[in-house]
Amino acid sequence: MAEEFESKAESGASLTYPQQAGTVRKNAFLNINNRPCKVVEVSTSKTGKHGHAKCHFVAIDIFSGKKLDDIVPSSHNCDVPHVTRTDYQLLDITDDDFVSLLTENGNTKDDLKLPTDDNLWKQIKEGYEQGKDLLVTVLSAMGEEQIVAVKDMGAK
C-alpha cells in the first residue's frame, strides 16, 4: 500500500533559481529569509579550518525596504528570485486606492494597490487627478507585486 505524502510548504521552485554563493555580486538579487532582496554589500571570509570560505551578504528587501543579511559558504548554492519589471499605463484609481492598469495585450490588471511610499503615492495620485498619461513600473518577484516607479507621458 502506497503512503500518501502531503507537503506542508510551498516548493517555490519556479519562484527562484540556484546560484553559487561565491558568484553573487553587489546589485544582484537574492532570496534571504524567503524575501526577494537586492544585494548592497558582499564580503568573503578566508577559508577556515573547516574548509569553506563564507560569503556575507547584506541586502535590502525589494518590497519592504528592510535590511537583511545572510552568511553562506561560498561553494553552496543560494536561491535567486526571478525578478521582473513591467511598465503599465495607468487607467484608473478606485476610492480604496486600487489601480486599474492596461496590459500589453489590451486587458486590464486590477489587483494592485497604490504604493505605500508617500512620495510615489502622491506623484501617482496628483498626476492622475491632473489628467496626465502615466506609466507605472511594477516589480514582481516570488508571487508579490508592487508599483515602484512612475513616468509622466504628458497630458492625455
TrEMBL record:
It comes from the Eukaryota. Belongs to the eIF-5A family. NCBIfam families: eIF_5A. GO terms for biological process: positive regulation of translational elongation; positive regulation of translational termination. One of its GO terms (molecular function) is translation elongation factor activity. It holds the Pfam family eIF-5a. The keyword Chloroplast does not apply. PROSITE patterns: IF5A_HYPUSINE. The keyword Transcription does not apply. It comes from Daucus carota subsp. sativus. Residues 82-151 form the Translation initiation factor 5A C-terminal domain. eIF-5A seems to be the only eukaryotic protein to have a hypusine residue which is a post-translational modification of a lysine by the addition of a butylamino group. SMART domains: eIF-5a (SM01376). Translation factor that promotes translation elongation and termination, particularly upon ribosome stalling at specific amino acid sequence contexts. Binds between the exit (E) and peptidyl (P) site of the ribosome and promotes rescue of stalled ribosome: specifically required for efficient translation of polyproline-containing peptides as well as other motifs that stall the ribosome. Acts as ribosome quality control (RQC) cofactor by joining the RQC complex to facilitate peptidyl transfer during CAT tailing step. Translation factor that promotes translation elongation and termination, particularly upon ribosome stalling at specific amino acid sequence contexts. Binds between the exit (E) and peptidyl (P) site of the ribosome and promotes rescue of stalled ribosome: specifically required for efficient translation of polyproline-containing peptides as well as other motifs that stall the ribosome. Acts as a ribosome quality control (RQC) cofactor by joining the RQC complex to facilitate peptidyl transfer during CAT tailing step. Keywords: Hypusine, Initiation factor, Protein biosynthesis. This is Eukaryotic translation initiation factor 5A. The lineage of its organism: Eukaryota, Viridiplantae, Streptophyta, Embryophyta, Tracheophyta.
